[in-house]
Design a protein that fits this description.
globular, mainly alpha
Length: 103
């Protein structure tokens, strides 16, 4: 295996790790984490429940990708998945506020 193939394999392996909670778990945890993140970032008045779920699920993938370099995120349970989703959601909302503030 060449060096470029090893890097591709490593990135693909990191980007596809999921936890054992499944898609329904991601939606439930994502909704709660997105709602809490919107409370933390003070954007709750602008967001509805669907957007909270979307932010939470995207945040779960973002947080899972970032934390996968330091921890084994695939073996985490519900609490670790929630923490990861909350962290990723706060980062995502911070980035959105950073980009939209400059307009």
């Amino acid at each position: 295996m060449s060096a470029s193939q090893a890097v591709e394999f490593f990135v693909a392996e990191r980007s596809t790790t999921t936890t054992a909670v499944g898609w329904i778990g991601y939606i439930i945890i994502g909704g709660i984490a997105g709602w809490l993140a919107s409370k933390i970032m003070k954007t709750d008045a602008q967001m509805g429940i669907i957007l909270n779920i979307v932010v939470g699920v995207i945040g779960a993938f973002l947080g899972g990708f970032l934390l996968s370099f330091a921890f084994d995120t695939a073996s985490g349970g519900w609490f670790f998945t929630f923490f990861t989703a909350l962290l990723g959601s706060v980062i995502l909302l911070w980035l959105v506020k950073l980009v939209t503030r400059k307009r």
